[in-house]
Automatic annotation (TrEMBL):
This is FAD-dependent urate hydroxylase. GO terms for molecular function: monooxygenase activity. Its cofactor is FAD. Coiled coil: none annotated. It comes from Pokkaliibacter plantistimulans. It catalyses: urate + NADH + O2 + H(+) = 5-hydroxyisourate + NAD(+) + H2O.
Amino acid sequence: MQALNIVVAGAGMGGLTAALALQKAGHRVHVYERVAELAPVGAAISIWSNGVKILNALGLKEQIEAVSGDMRSMSYQDQQGQTLTRFSLEPLYQQVQQPARPIARALLQELLLEAVGREHITLGVSCEQVAQDAKGIDVTLSTGDTVRADLLVAADGTHSRLRTEVAGFDSEREYRGYVNWNGRVPVSADLADAHEWKQFVGEHKRVSLMPMGNDEFYFFFDVPLPKGTANQRNHYRDELRQHFAGWAEPVQTLIERIDPERVARVEIHDVDPLDKLVKGRLVLLGDAAHSMTPDLGQGGCQAMEDAWVLMNCLEQYAGDVPAALAQYEAQRLERVAGIVLRARKRCDTTHGTDPVKTQEWYDELAQESGVNILAGLRQTIEGSPLQ
């Protein structure tokens, strides 16, 4: 196979996974990241089985297992703390032959950085413009320098500057109606079982506690709010007390234990599915290609799938980059569009876009044995390119 010179724009989870996969395939890869210091957005990432399998195949199995959460069950409570449903995740894990691995974003990023090699990553430099011909692509950097490559992988995130170059128009990020506060707290039995993903739902709001490894829970609070609501860190705890007044004792305990200085507050957006992911030798990957709400926990996993498919397509069409990218687009376009729309639908149901449907969902949870939820998770996982 012909080794290619590949530039990756962005050192997030998608860009680093792509860089590692392409290196494993024998290509020469360099990553440019616009920020001077990497600081992952969000405390943790829920890597479901489809993403874990790809990280395992890229040589990170032992490292991931050592630092990720051991999530064995899942439950929903109402706002008073009454259990609506609780069930084991083991049947799902047996069916897909891989447990989920919730993990701190900073730890995963560090593992990927070390695997790629820091000498292959330049911080504080972004990919600004491109010019292509039949034999390659010229990438103009924010330094004013130009680098020549066989391929540019645009993994520059939800605010991608290169997405417009591929799409042919400015694809607007759309506010999906809710704000998410997230962070991490020490595992404690008065919050949740150390091996259970526990969620409280009611009033179109949600509180979640997920085991993320290192004896910590990843927590988040979701609240439907107008866009542009004031974001004042010193008011986070008081805001949450107000939004969740009267909720169950574990929710009140969690609010008192958070460290506002370590909490991220994010307005949740997504981008309508694109009708193309490739333009010549420029290819979109990760959030640049399919920015989605976090309601299915699949944003990072889909970026990992992108990386795996891109690596395989370049191997299948060795020496013919345009043909490889056309195949990548054919394999990814429908899958990622479907997950963007499913995540949006789940977002709307959870957060009261249609209050009648949200109440119906609460009622369904009270009758849920786990079979339907597990079937939905399995459907997503089994669509992965790596079984």
